[in-house]
């Protein structure tokens, strides 16, 4: 078997032949530019002056006191330009695409955060942009659809399959096969065929690098645990990557358990998935015994994905990281908790990590510390949470 | 010579495609037999997949209908067993890597061989990853079909050199589906392949009319027709057999008329 782009047995490059030269070209370009001083300098400048990095590492004092255990720090990716961690990867990929001579970018989006980030950077760099979004998601995240259009992108609602994130990925792959020479697919997570899981992880690893420096400055020590939500897994991988070698640091990924891991309405890939090959990669997927991909569910459009990035699958196999399911109810409760406790409204995706952090921190000592990745801000979710609570507001 | 390759020995090959189980496995079974007598030289049987990324809307809908009707790989294997009592026409499965991998790659290929299935076409298993199936295909005597596309360029030689059965030439960018014109230079693709191999080349994606089939048969060794057939099936449902057969006879004549 091809060993390229493998994390243990996971990963690989399972794509239609039409896209193979494009993916090889991407791989070569990335190998060239990732060590190119001018490219790195340009990206660093954009991250600092456009995205607003470094993001804050905020000590959540009231939350810490309330839970009575470990010190809780929040990595404030929600404060980045466009309101989530997605901009880190998009700035890197669109800059790379531009160096490759591409003039058009396409992207999938779930909650709309990656689509908004891609539309934003496309506007900044003068590139044409088209975003594919599940029809159901365009309805639950209508504000983000308009936001992308405002930024000059064309949004295609995808009504095939389940009309959610996986179908948006299918449609973006189909679009890429029909127009590949001038187009780069800005994949939004640490998933898909090699080299995407590596590229996206590298561009997101700025999160963990900053956390390490910031926490050492504040606490003089490494954190005892890192907690992040996982759909495809880019914010988690970005946080974890620099700490994989630091064995004392627990790495905890929070999967969307929807209405419960033992119901048929969840997106908990590690809890319920089996090995498969889909969307270009070998990994774990929610699927039936015949390999038909399962319709998954989560209140969070960004975690509503039936697979997980191959490096996470490997971190799970080796036991280096733990993956825990968090239900809709727990996430909504955490969404409200953080809003009231710290005056920070988290994205419903990130609220899954907050819910897990509440349990983990409470069981730890006061001399310990944890870092929760607040991967996005919750403005986009306010209307949906109101609906969840039976409040009828006009959005 | 494998049975797949032999499908091209008598002249240009007409290769129709059917999504198994749309509208039902009984109709698929009947269609295979009728297509063989209407002049099909090889028949592709699609195993429906929930997320067929290489397919356009026509075959996507066919897959959805088949899956909604509860069609499984095991049901399709049983259908092929029944078909094999009636016709010896070369048969290829067309499906995605996940249904095979989940079934167990070796177990799947072994079952194919047991059902006298001749070839496997897996559009999301590129040259670099074919090690997932190739050893089992060699072990059990099933041809693993390679694909080349208009973007393949220098890869064509590499792929053609190791190709077996026939080489599937993707006529156009994008997904499967009827096209008014085929714009890629398929003749150039075929001649690049011919530089390194005597493997038969069949062109697929976008072929719907007898004229297109004839044109493609001039440029290569065979023409593959999928979405155009699945459109007829979608239109007539359980009554589709005479309509599909009439269409196939016309297409087969167009292909076989080319020398």
From TrEMBL, chain A:
Q: What is its EC number?
A: 4.2.1.20
**Which Gene3D superfamilies did the record assign?**
3.40.50.1100
- UniProt keyword annotations, A-Z: Amino-acid biosynthesis, Aromatic amino acid biosynthesis, Lyase, Pyridoxal phosphate, Tryptophan biosynthesis
Could you tell me what reaction this enzyme catalyses?
(1S,2R)-1-C-(indol-3-yl)glycerol 3-phosphate + L-serine = D-glyceraldehyde 3-phosphate + L-tryptophan + H2O
Cofactor or coenzyme needed: pyridoxal 5'-phosphate
> Domain of life here?
Bacteria
Pathway membership: Amino-acid biosynthesis; L-tryptophan biosynthesis; L-tryptophan from chorismate: step 5/5
Stated role? The beta subunit is responsible for the synthesis of L-tryptophan from indole and L-serine.
This protein is called Tryptophan synthase beta chain
UniProtKB/TrEMBL annotation, chain B:
Query: Which pathway, per its entry?
Result: Amino-acid biosynthesis; L-tryptophan biosynthesis; L-tryptophan from chorismate: step 5/5
In terms of superkingdom, the source organism counts as Bacteria
Q: What is its EC number?
A: 4.2.1.20
Q: Which residues form the active site?
A: 44, 55
Q: Amino-acid biosynthesis: present as a keyword of the record?
A: yes
Q: Provide the alphabetized UniProt keywords.
A: Amino-acid biosynthesis, Aromatic amino acid biosynthesis, Lyase, Tryptophan biosynthesis
Q: One Pfam family of this protein, by short name? A: Trp_syntA
The keyword Nucleotide-binding appears for this protein? no
* One MF annotation (Gene Ontology) recorded for this entry: tryptophan synthase activity
What task does this protein carry out? The alpha subunit is responsible for the aldol cleavage of indoleglycerol phosphate to indole and glyceraldehyde 3-phosphate.
User: How does this chain assemble?
Assistant: Tetramer of two alpha and two beta chains.
Family according to the record? Belongs to the TrpA family.
What protein am I looking at? Tryptophan synthase alpha chain
What organism is this sequence from? Christensenella tenuis
Gene this protein is translated from: trpA
